[in-house]
């Protein structure tokens, strides 16, 4: 079962990548006048937004996991200094 | 499938799905930007750019040659065919986000369409020797003639 899923994943990538390439690639027909500054900087800012969001989500998940693990440890009990009211 | 962990793992699959979706989105955005930027208009004017230690020369379609200065008109599209006679340079007009390497034995192209009259810096962006820092030029965008 797993190998079949793997095979289909590989096949899907092999089909999807050329299909997307075909759909998005610049063809022979003439292009439009455009301001490359706008296109390139917009792409840059969008990529930065995505990068920071992914960074926050990934690091947040790791921090949450580590915190959960730490708190679940039997020895993770408040010290007398911190108080024993728990 | 046998569950070894003994707990539900559906959040992990959501996590994986979100990451894959984000990557697809990023790829599509980049692809689209590249397609737009590489699509050259039909009436583009070709300018031959030659980089050499340590200055830029330009040749227009009508044979006009310029050294260190490039005169273009606002509202027109220009395609640079970038050559190098010695080492690798990089042709950069920072204000218009034009950046393309000049590699000996190759012709690299990049196009842009200046929209407003003005003066902009041209600078080599690949370290090419002693006077690389001063391998500069000026882009002068003039009012359209018609």
Give the arrangement of secondary structure elements:
The complex is a heterodimer of chains A (86) and B (146).
Chain A: H1 2-24, H2 36-72
Chain B: H1 10-38, E1 45-52, E2 55-59, E3 65-67, E4 69-73, E5 78-84, E6 89-93, E7 98-102, E8 108-112, E9 118-124, E10 136-142
Parallel strand pairs in B: 1-5, 4-10
Antiparallel strand pairs in B: 1-2, 2-3, 5-8, 6-7, 6-9, 9-10
What does this structure look like?
- The complex is a heterodimer of chains A (86) and B (146).
- Chain A is mainly α and 86 residues long.
- Chain A has a domain at 36-70.
- Helices cover 70% and strands 0% of the residues of chain A.
- The radius of gyration of chain A is 25 Å and the shape is elongated.
- In chain A, 0% of the residues are buried.
- With 146 residues, chain B is an alpha+beta fold.
- Chain B has 2 domains: 9-39; 45-142, Sandwich (Immunoglobulin-like), CATH 2.60.40.420.
- Helices cover 20% and strands 39% of the residues of chain B.
- Chain B contains 1 helix and 10 strands.
- A 5-stranded mixed sheet of chain B has the order 3-2-1-5-8, with no helix packed on it. A 5-stranded mixed sheet of chain B has the order 4-10-9-6-7, with no helix packed on it.
- In chain B, a hairpin with a 2-residue loop joins strand 1 (45-52) and strand 2.
- Chain B is elongated and about 75 Å long.
- The relative contact order of chain B is 0.18.
- Chain A binds chain B through residues 1-2, 20-21, 24-26, 30-37, 39-43, 46-47, 50, 54, 61, and chain B through 1, 15, 19, 22, 25-42, 77, 95-98, 112-113, 115.
